[in-house]
Each structure stands twice: as structure tokens, then as C-alpha cells.
Amino acid sequence: MKLVLAIIKPHKIDEVREALGSLGVQGLTISEARGYGRQKGHTEIYRGAEYETSLVPKIRLEVVVEDDFAPRVVETIHQAAQTGSIGDGKIFTIPVEAAVRIRTGEQNNDAL
Amino acid sequence: MLSRCSKFAGAAGVVALFAAAPALAQEAAAAAPAAPFTPTAEMVNKGDTAWMLVSSALVLMMSIPALALFYGGLVRSKNMLSVLMQVLTIVSIAALVWVGWGYSLAFTGGSPYVGGLSKAFLKGVDASTLAATFSNGVYIPEYAFVVFQMTFACITPALIVGAFAERIKFWPLILFVVLWLTIVYFPLAHMVWYWAGPDFLPSAPGDHGLLWGWGALDFAGGTVVHINAGIAGLVGALIIGPRIGFRTELLPPHSLPMTLIGAALLWVGWFGFNAGSNLEANGLAALAFINTFVATAAAALAWALVEQIVHKKPSLLGAATGAVAGLVAITPAAGFGAPGTSIILGAVASVVCFFFVTTVKNKLRYDDTLDVFGVHCVGGIVGAIGTGIVAAPALGGQGFFDYTVMPAVPGTYDMAAQVITQIKAVALTLVWSGGVSAVLFYAIHKTIGLRPTADAEREGLDINEHGERAYNY
Fold this sequence. Notes:
heterodimer, A: alpha+beta, Alpha-Beta Plaits, four-stranded antiparallel beta sheet, two-stranded antiparallel sheet, 21% helix, 37% strand, B: 473 residues, mainly alpha, Ammonium transporter fold, two-stranded antiparallel ribbon, 4 strands
């Protein structure tokens, strides 16, 4: 099993979710996150007082899938979340040791 | 000097209070052979009375919730309730102080500097007593006048708290407000707005406040309310010192939607403030109304345009701040200018305040948290001086009335002399309010203390001063 962890632009979440749904992904988890990379944040100005905001809002998306399925999930997120401008985010793939569905006790691939 | 007595020397520049009328009338009769004037119930118009009561409610709305939300949205969420509570409590205590001794000190005769205590606790005022307006033979119920002026005494000290928001102890602030109203506000209101009234001045030509006698024009309170509160706020901010984290941490507003709700309600309420200051529901009230509308619109737009040029983006906070700057600036001029000159006055005040708030404040590095000085004092000064220009009949203004004769007649307008008079009135307000406020703040700071502990300030005033939080998720 693989954990696909993606950091994406918040306004892209609906497109990504739709694309993953079409691909057959059964479930995923998102959380609101803040961070920075090459996109160095932005400047806010309140009555002339300038604030450099280095941490910008992002969506952190997590989905665990079978090993063979992971590359297609990554490619789908990549295409759906891309705008081509700086700050589009990153996708990581991480091995997962075990999984359990809490309701039934099913293990590993059966639990996905 | 009396030849320069102005028609609207004041928001409600009136007075004439007829609890004391029999004695006053007898004195007048002794001095002048003319028959003593006695206002009667027939001189009261129901339309005027209704308008004054509605206006009073509108001005109360300017304090709560308008000013409270305007300020509250601009502080961090940990201090939201402290600002709301300060404004609510100041309004409440100012109302009680006003009926206790404020009305009497501001609006009875005595000296050019302050009134007496003959009407303390509204002694002698009842449903049948009357207050003068700006027209010969037109009166409103004295209670309507008392309550209208009360709302001004409520909002003025509430304006001050923005200057040192996020770093003030609650009860010492309330103590300051009671002392400040008594020593600064009531005497200044008396100096600017007290006079015997159009039917009484001819037989009692010395019966008026100091600035009214100078001929200073202040339709609805540029000096008494805005310059007065603005300079007091600056002095307080300097004595209390900057917030922890000022210029080193992010201190952004926590809810600009709240701030817009507040600014918009201020605009609506301000119609009561400015058009109500005419004391009669007539064409001049309508003039003050439209001037208030267009000056504010021009000011909001001007701020946004300047921001577009300077910062490349027009901000909501900027436009809302510009609107308030325009409201402040048109306040002394509302019933004097024409719509065209009011638009210019609003736009000019907005640009001057923008420069002050964004550039001068950053250079001087004082922490006026919510720009009470930069908007209310600076905008008030632009408006007060501008009033001397826009009131000129040559520019479509209303000029002033000579009340030393009966009935009153238009006076001869000299713009240069009027502008100098306006500057003198501004200077006196700055010196009086700034000086006394400094003494009061310093005395409280050195005795019971004005500032919370550093830990309390960091954690927020809501929890530490009031034991509650604005937002529980």
C-alpha cells in the first residue's frame, strides 16, 4: 500500500476530488494547512502597515491506495491540481505498513 | 465680536432654558424697554420634535453597535470583547453623567468657559420646558434637546478608546472618562455651542460660550467631538506606550467584515448627527443630509483611488477608513457648504488622512492603535478649517446669521477672517483637550495604573479583564 500525500492550492480541491472519484478512489482525507515553498507568501497592507505573510493557506490531501494504483493516483492529482504558476504544491508517495478498517476489522488491501 | 455671531455656532448651539426664564426675562426687561420674550407651546412643531427624537436614536446607534463593531473588527480576536465592552460601558456612564451634571455644565449660562449647576440632575426640566433652535420663535421640547446632546456626550469619549485599544485596564479607563467628560468635554461643549438663543441674545448679548462669541463655525461637532477625542486619544497612546509587539509582530485586524458593518452603520447614524444638529426639520437639515452623503462618498472613493496608485490595490479597510474620514470632515461644515464643495472637502480630507495614517504615523512611530488621531483629529482639523471656506456665500455656502438683532439677518462674510477664526478654535481645542487629557492620563497612570501586565496583554484583554472570549469554536 502507498500513502499519496499531496499539498495543493485550496481552490483546486473540487477538481482533484472529482478526478479521483472518476478514477475509482474510494475515500480520502483533507485538512487545511499552511506552509511555504518557492511561493514566498504575500504582502498584506492594513492602512499602510505592511505585513509579509510567509505561510500561505494550502490543502493537505491524503489517500491510501494499493501499490499498483499509486502512480495513476499521483498522475491524476498532478493533472487536476496544476495551474502552471508558482505555489501549485507537491505530491509525495510513502509506503504504508498496515491498514485496518475499524468497523469490520478487515486488514490491509481489504481495508482500503 | 458679536457682529460675527454665527447662525450655527454649534451642533446644537442652543439653549435657553426656561426653568430660569422668569428671572432671565425680568433682567432683560430691566435692561431693555422691549417687552420680555416668552416662548410658548405654540412655537413647538411636532415635525421638529419627531426629527430630533429620531436623530437622537440614530446618534446612539453610531456608538453601539456602529463604533463598537468598527473598532472591534480592527483589533485581534483576543481583544474583541474588551473594545465592545469599553464602548458599551462608556455610553452608559456618559448618559448618567450627562443627566447628573453634564447638561447643566454645558448648557446653562454662567461664564464663557463653563456653565453652572442650576440644572444638575435636570432640576427644573420637565415636559413643558423648551429649548431654542436657530430660528426666531421656533422651539423644541427641552427633553428632546437634552437627549440629543446626550448622545454626543456618549460617543465622544468612546471614540478615544481606539487610540490605546488592546492595552488598557477597564476600570481606570472608565474613571478617566468620567473625569474627562467633566473637565474637558462639558466646558468645551459650553464654549462652542452655548448661547442664549435667537430670541434672547439681542437683550443679553454676552450670554454665550467663548468660541461661539469668536464666531467659530462648527455645525455638528468638528471641534467638540472629533478634534477633542482625537488629541485626547493621541495623548493617551503616548502616555500608555505602544503595544507589545508593535512594529515587530503581525497585528492585523481580525474581522474586516465587522469593520465594514460598523462603518456603514456610522454613515447611516451620522445623518442624525449632522442633519439633526440643525435642530429643525427643514431645508437646512436636508442640506446637511445631502452634504453628509456626498462628502462621505467622495472620501471613500478618494482613499481607494490613492491606494490603487500607491499600493496598486484598493482595499476595503481603506475605503471604509476614507468614508469615516469624510464623515468627520463634513461634520463641522454639514449645514454650511454646498454639495459640490462638500465633495471636494470630503476628498481632500480623505487624502490628507491617508497620508497621515500611512506615512506620518510610520515615521513618528507612535502606536495609535486604530488611528483615532490620524482620522478623527486630522480629519476634524481639515473639516474645521475647510468650513471657513465652504461656508462662504460666494461658493454657494450659507454664510452666518447675525443674531444680535431681532429677527436675525445674514451677516457679511469674510472668508479670510473666518478661516483665521476657525484656526483659533482648532488651536484652543488642541491645547485644552491635549493638556488636560495629558494631566488626567498621567495622574491615573502613576496611581492606579492604566496598563495591564505584560502577560495579560499577551494573552488578551477579553480573558484577563472580562473573563470571556469572543469566539468559542
